[in-house]
Design brief:
Length: about 325
């Protein structure tokens, strides 16, 4: 079945998602509609891919009967309302991470999707990369024995980017890049809830976190150390350490193309593309798009790779981390 996509927002990540869709079969995927706050922006992006419908009102996408599924690439603060709108109209949703700003929103949205019996998935694209699928096999095979340490860092100098530095845009290191650190720890420890999270860090002048270090304590004397920063460049790799050695997810672990075990390096090149992307390895966005199509073909309302339970666990971890640093969003005071 061909999946006809509606795209919400014409910003940088949506541009990359549209470009990545071109790597998939035209018989399986099509961009049928794009909506943005500016009609000119929607038309500008739509023109590149001969998109049939371009709107300045997001509700038009929700109401369009030709739209089979919706990708939401707007800023963090709009995710909850826009995703709920699409689900209300029966549209399956792939929403950029973080799915929502806080745990309350995330719980409410997942519950609403189940109530409506409509597919909802957080766009945790890294989980669909071939390198991550291989990492799962290595962990299941206990290549490095019993894992008891995870050390992961993500630091890039993006402190001046508006969506990262402003509280009203849902900014902060935790929500923007910290989710990648948290998901690797969760991946290594089988989606177990940590017993304890201890975090220290710093806020910027707008009241969002620009750096933090967290230690997550798990059962069985296992820990994960998560280091994140929007001020400095960090090694940006993940180490999964067991009693028989270490597996490394190398530089750009959030969109990995290799896994290094004690005995061998495994490379997983991304599909070649002539498109110019805004972000590193964005051609890998094609994996999550195809995954959504397969899920819908099977009649699923959540992804077995990024299930609601995992999204809720990550939301809980991220909320603990940023709260301990002192980040409080206005949305934290609302009920949903």
């Amino acid at each position: 079945m061909k999946l006809r996509w509606g795209i919400i927002s014409a910003g940088k990540i949506s541009q990359d998602f549209c470009a990545a869709l071109q790597l998939l079969s035209k018989e399986d995927h099509e961009i049928i509609a794009i909506a943005a706050r500016s009609l000119d922006d929607a038309k500008g992006l739509g023109l590149q891919y001969s998109v049939k419908y371009c709107y300045s009102d997001y509700k038009e996408v929700a109401q369009n009967p030709e739209v089979d599924a919706v990708y939401i690439g707007s800023i963090n603060t709009t995710h909850y309302e826009l995703a709920r709108m699409m689900l209300e109209h029966g549209k399956p949703v792939l929403c950029e991470k973080p799915l929502c700003l806080n745990l309350k929103q995330t719980e409410a949205l997942c519950e609403f999707a189940k109530k409506k019996k409509v597919f909802l998935m957080e766009a945790l694209w890294v989980r669909l990369f071939p390198a991550m699928l291989h990492l799962r096999k290595e962990l299941d095979n206990k290549t490095v024995g019993e894992v008891s340490q995870v050390i992961v860092s993500f630091g890039v100098q993006i402190q001046h980017v508006e969506r990262v530095k402003k509280k009203q845009l849902g900014g902060g290191a935790t929500l923007d890049i910290g989710i990648y650190c948290a998901q690797l720890a969760s991946f290594a420890y089988g989606s177990e809830t940590p017993l304890k999270i201890v975090t220290t860090g710093h806020l910027n002048e707008f009241g969002v976190d620009e750096s933090s270090t967290s230690v997550l304590t798990y059962s069985g004397n296992r820990t994960a150390t998560l280091i994140m920063s929007t001020k400095v460049d960090l090694p940006n790799e993940g180490l999964i350490i067991g009693d028989k050695g270490t597996i490394k997810v190398p530089f750009r672990f959030w969109c990995p193309t290799a896994i290094v075990t004690p005995d061998k390096r495994y490379d997983f090149p991304l599909p070649p593309s002539d498109h110019k992307y805004n972000f590193h390895n964005s051609n890998g966005l094609c994996y999550e798009a195809e995954h959504v199509r397969q899920c819908l073909n099977e009649g699923l309302i959540e992804s077995p790779v990024v299930p609601h339970s995992e999204t809720l666990l990550l939301a809980k971890i991220l909320e603990s981390i940023r709260s301990q640093v002192g980040v409080h969003y206005p949305e934290d005071d609302k009920e949903y």
